[in-house]
Amino acid sequence: xxxxxxxxxxxxxxxxxxxxxxxxxxxxxxxxxxxxxxxxxxxxxxxxxxxxxxxxxxxxxxxxxxxxxxxxxxxxxxxxxxxxxxxxxxxxxxxxxxxxxxxxxxxxxxxxxxxxxxxxxxxxxxxxxxxxxxxxxxxxxxxxxxxxxxxxxxxxxxxxxxxxxxxxxxxxxxxxxxxxxxxxxxxxxxxxxxxxxxxxxxxxxxxxxxxxxxxxxxxxxxxxxxxxxxxxxxxxxxxxxxxxxxxxxxxxxxxxxxxxxxxxxxxxxxxxxxxxxxxxxxxxxxxxxxxxxxxxxxxxxxxxxx
Length: 306
Fold this sequence. Notes:
Blueprint lengths: L6 E7 L6 H8 L5 E6 L6 H7 L3 E4 L5 H11 L6 E4 L4 E3 L1 H10 L7 E12 L2 E3 L7 E8 L3 E3 L8 E3 L3 E5 L3 E4 L4 H24 L15 H12 L8 H13 L6 H30 L5 H12 L4
Parallel strand pairs: 1-2, 1-4, 2-3, 6-11, 6-12
Antiparallel strand pairs: 4-8, 5-12, 6-7, 6-8, 9-10
Helix pairs in contact: 5-8, 7-8
């Protein structure tokens, strides 16, 4: 890379002592500035990050989108490029090498870089069921990218140029157990239910900026199918159909016992839970006349700062 500060990597954390050293070690050779935005860790996350040379900021967490945008707005980033990375993700050596050699050479009309993420579950790479590759825009030019303002399924979007792809290894590899997984997805389901209800009722402005030009074709296509088809079907229909599609048509059964657990929990149970929460929350706001009253009730029952 042209200078040691040509890239800034932004990582959000809360109680990530299990992952943060691994995450930072994987990108150490890039010579990038690493910015950690922590939201109240009670373990050694902050101490480990500081020991490894990261700049640590602190901010109260509302949702991922607002937290990450706060980082972009407050971290005094001066590098040419910015990278979004989760604490439980790992950049593999071939992608590190590609970033080192290719990022400085990109033409001036390139605004963002898509990466192909793999998912590791219970120690196994989930290769099927439509889970690889997940094409995500994770690197962009400073001043030409922001995160979508959504409660769930937020993507980076760029403007003022085209996107390209790097094909090196990039893995979501969380080391926590199934209790953590189900608890996390239970919280995700509440946030996604809010986005579904907002699509239906228009409580607040919806971010409609995701497109094939601003991110990846895959992300844009999935969003289109979810919002235009899936979310409009009876809630009990979608999860069954989606699981069967993933597990049989997209060959999820080839991922073994770990794949069965993953595809069932993430492809059926989670989707069913989202639908059930939408139904539950709609019942909570039924009969309330004004938008303000509905939002107040949703804040009360979800605990989210809507």
